[in-house]
Design goal:
The chain is α/β, with parallel strands linked by helices and 561 residues long. The protein is built from 21 helices and 13 strands. The protein has a five-stranded parallel β-sheet, with helices on both faces. The protein has a four-stranded parallel β-sheet with strand order 2-1-3-4, sandwiched between helices. Strands 6-5-7-8 form a four-stranded parallel β-sheet, sandwiched between helices. Strand 5, helix 7 and strand 6 form a beta-alpha-beta unit. It starts with 11 loop residues before the first helix and ends with a helix.
């Protein structure tokens, strides 16, 4: 074990709490000391729920260790069943209780409780929260479906049996849970998306499901593994035991949403609609629903092309973010990693495609160091990376758990599907555009537009600038005389010109070298003229004979101070 200020995942019993709290009719008896009840706050504060998690703690104390703590466990289990009347019971222990080896699940198994009971043996010192959630969900589904297991040799059901039964195809959405990233809205978006293609949703689990709903899982024609961190093991087991095919493409981003729909249509033997037909070099009609493909090819996105992006999150969102950043937004991914050790192989494969070595760690200080060394211009990560990016002065968008309350919006804000692509477009691009705005304000803050007291576009209706005394009339200030290089000051008027200003203009333009003009051309057109004027003013003030790329950078640094 390590002592740390922050952690990406809690112990595995917190993962079990996520499953119990996500569902209805499930209760969790946790053998734990008083101090381990802190986990309640994760749900009431971050998820802003009005209900406490359905958890009964045995809350043993130091003085109980000298007596029979097994009796305390049995009493707590019996009281929980009598009081809450659960449809299914989970029994486990926290990392502290694991040390005293009371084995609460074994005790509960001999109590004839009259409800399905799952004994959770979660190794607290070798596994973590996401593994605990996946294991709990797997054990619960396996326990409830045990009576329905087909006999050996039973033919696997056909995914297209819906056609023979005269109904619409139906699928299960597996994996969404509380404390996941935008799971509630993802379920709504994917349900709506599937309905547009004539596909029904049979069961969503664990989020919002009851034990009876889990018993209906085999009635679906396919399982959609929305969040592999939670649903990966149970989807694999259902595929082996019931022959139910699994759709594993996670629909985050434009390309992945289209690929998800194509995979699903193939699995269910559905005819692929024309709007999903792939067009050579062009997005399909369905993909044009999002504004992300249009923006990626627009003039306004030029400033963002090639931006250096560092990504660290859970495996699902990290892989999706890397794909969107590199293939859909034209960013350069300079770092990719995850704290999800169970999906490390998939993250390493995604990093290898980008010519990178994946960073697999749960040490936020290692991540922060890698972030700084990558010289990133945008960070996509968890709430931990948001704090690190703030220290490094980098824009950041949160794309994954662990998260804080501001990342659980009351508004509709999915990450999956077409609308999810729009949300990602806003969430990622806005920090960069705000960074551009702050950069420009710093660069041009000495121009008259940014000087305190400058006249507003409202004209005489603008408030007067504050003066030293209320009744003191403002005094006119003579314009600053800026020295002009000899080559400019002595330039004679060009033939055909009628003003000395035109001659000065031509002389200034002649100062620009080829590399200076090339760097100037990279600046967005809507501020290029102002950058030119500022740089030329800087050159006059310094008496420069040439304006090359280095002079442009010096001018930028000068006006940014």
């Amino acid at each position: 074990m390590e002592l740390t200020l922050w952690t990406y995942e809690g112990p595995p019993h917190v993962g079990a709490m996520r499953i119990a709290t996500s569902m209805e009719g499930v209760h969790y008896v946790l053998h734990a000391p008083q101090g381990d009840t802190y986990a309640d706050l994760l749900f009431t504060m971050i998820e802003r729920r009005g209900l406490r998690p359905p958890v009964t703690y045995t809350t043993f104390q130091a003085r109980d260790l000298g007596g029979d703590t097994a009796e305390l466990v049995q009493r707590s289990i019996r009281q929980a069943v009598e009081r809450f009347q659960p449809e299914a019971l989970l029994v486990g222990e926290s990392c502290t209780a694991e040390l005293i080896q009371d084995q609460p699940g074994a005790l509960a198994a001999g109590m004839n409780l009259g409800v399905p009971m799952v004994n959770l043996e979660l190794p607290a010192y070798s596994k973590k929260e996401n593994w605990g959630a996946a294991e709990t969900f797997y054990q619960l589904v396996r326990t409830l479906l045990k009576p329905q297991l087909p006999a050996p040799g039973t033919p696997k059901p056909s995914p297209s049996r819906w056609r023979e039964e005269g109904r619409r195809p139906r699928v299960n959405l597996l994996g969404p849970s509380l404390l996941g990233f935008r799971c509630r809205d993802d379920v709504l978006e994917i349900t709506r998306l599937l309905a547009e293609h004539g596909i029904d949703v049979a069961v969503v689990a664990p989020l919002g499901a009851r034990p009876a709903d889990l018993e209906r899982i085999p009635t679906a024609d396919a399982n959609v593994c929305l969040y592999p961190e939670v649903a990966g093991p149970v989807c694999s087991w259902l595929e082996r035991s019931f022959g139910t095919p699994v759709v594993r493409t996670v629909p985050i981003g434009i390309g992945a949403t289209a690929a998800f729909l194509r995979e699903l249509h193939g699995v269910l033997d559905l005819a692929l609609p024309a709007e999903l037909q792939e067009l050579e070099g062009q997005p399909s009609e369905a993909e044009r629903r999002s504004r992300l493909p249009w923006y990626s090819k627009s003039v306004d996105s030029t400033y963002l092309t090639g931006k250096r992006v560092f990504i660290f999150a859970d495996a699902t969102h990290a892989i999706a973010a890397a794909r969107i950043a590199s293939k859909e937004l034209g960013f350069q991914v300079v770092g990719l990693g995850s704290y999800s050790r169970e999906q490390a192989r998939e993250v390493r494969a995604a990093a290898a495609e980008l010519g990178l070595e994946a960073l697999i760690t749960d040490d936020y200080l290692v991540v922060e160091k890698a972030m700084a060394e990558a010289a990133a211009e945008l960070v996509l990560g968890t709430q931990m990376e948001r704090h690190s990016a703030k220290r490094l002065g980098l824009p950041c968008a949160v794309i994954s758990a662990p998260l804080h309350v501001q990342d659980v919006p009351a508004r509709y804000s999915p990450q999956m599907g077409w609308e999810g692509a729009n949300v990602i477009f806003d969430s990622w691009v806005h920090p960069l555009m705000m960074g551009l705005e702050e950069h420009l304000i710093g660069m041009f803050r000495h121009d008259f537009e940014f000087v305190d007291g400058h006249r507003s576009h409202l004209g005489d209706g603008a408030p007067a600038a504050a003066s030293g005394a209320d009744n003191e009339a403002p005094t006119a200030t003579a314009p600053t005389q800026v020295p002009v290089p000899a080559s400019v000051a002595t330039a004679a008027p060009a033939p055909g010109t009628t003003t000395a200003g035109a001659a000065v203009r031509e002389a200034l333009e002649s100062l620009w070298t080829a590399d200076g003009e090339a760097e100037l051309a990279k600046i967005p057109f809507f501020v290029r003229g102002k950058v030119r004027k500022n740089t030329e003013a800087f050159a006059r003030e310094r008496g420069l004979e040439r304006i090359d790329a280095e002079a442009l950078y010096d001018a930028k640094a000068h006006f940014s101070r």
